[in-house]
Write a structure and sequence with these properties.
By secondary structure, this protein is an alpha+beta fold. It has a domain of 153 residues: Alpha-Beta Plaits. It has 7 helices and 6 strands, in the order αααβαβαββαβαβ. The chain has a 6-stranded antiparallel beta sheet with strand order 3-4-2-5-1-6, with helices on one face. Helix 4 packs antiparallel against helix 7. 8% of the residues are buried.
Length: 266
């Protein structure tokens, strides 16, 4: 055992001496590079590719001045770029841009009109066909209106049919002949005495029947209908012939037709 221990100790001492005395070698020098893998470089060994030594005799003020000049050059180049871009656009000043829409609005406002009202839509369509060579755009505009047309005289509705029939017999006894019993609607069981175009005629009957002891009412009757206008814009350098307007004004018997300027943008 003692000899075995001495032998192992001697081997260890020889190995240590070989490691200390052996020359150092660069193991990676002769190693073949691996494809698509960059070689490792220590941070202390890296050098910027465009790095150049800065002269030691340059001052802080000189560096600041050069940096200021670079900023001025950049500002000038940006301004030149903007000016070059504007040079290819329309040569319109700021004042001209503001005035252009105003001039266009005035021009169009002077050439836009409304003509009406008309009751007959077919008449308006015929007018539009005749205006077609002189106008740029046309469209119809309608409005529903109510107009008092008649006056209705009637006896207020009774509570039931029996009472209404009794009232009609009383009218006959008083020599009132022109009436009829209302059988439907909100005036059911009332008695109609007639419709009158003139208010004076309706009031006269109202007064006469009231004197006979009946609860009589006069009510205006309204008629609903639609009236139309033609809005149009004249074509450039065209004038609408007055003969066309005069012709269709005469054709419209029920309404007073007129022409008025309008805003083209409305």
């Amino acid at each position: 055992m003692r000899w075995l221990f001495v032998l192992l100790l001697a081997l260890n001492l020889v190995y240590i001496a070989w490691q200390v005395l052996a020359p150092t070698t660069e193991l990676h020098v002769n190693t073949a590079p691996v494809k698509n893998v960059r070689s490792l470089v220590l941070l202390s060994e890296s050098v910027p590719p465009d790095a150049s030594p800065v002269p030691q005799n340059i001052t802080v003020s000189t560096i600041a001045a050069e940096h200021s000049n670079d900023e001025v050059d950049n500002e000038v180049s940006v301004k030149d770029s903007v000016n070059n871009d504007l040079a290819f656009g329309p040569s319109v000043t700021v004042d001209e841009k503001k005035d252009a829409p105003i001039r266009e609005q005035r021009l169009q406002a002077d050439s836009c009109f409304s003509l009406g009202p008309f009751r007959d839509l077919d008449t308006l369509r015929n007018l539009t066909r005749e205006l077609k060579p002189y106008v740029k755009t046309t469209y119809f505009r309608g409005k529903e209106v109510k107009k008092r047309s008649l006056y209705w005289v009637y006896i207020r509705p009774a509570k039931n049919r029996v009472t209404a029939v009794a009232t009609s017999k009383r009218l006959k006894a008083k020599k009132v002949k022109d009436f009829y019993l209302i059988r439907e609607g909100d005036k059911n069981n009332g008695i109609s005495l007639g419709y009158f175009r003139s208010q004076s005629g309706a009031k006269r009957l109202l007064s006469d029947v009231k004197k006979l002891g009946f609860d009589v009412v006069m009510e205006p009757v309204y008629k609903s209908y639609t009236i139309y206008w033609l809005d149009y814009q004249l074509a450039h350098d065209f004038t609408l012939p007055e003969s066309i307007i005069a012709k269709y004004i005469k054709l419209e018997k029920k309404e007073k037709v007129g022409q008025s300027a309008r805003d083209c943008f409305s």
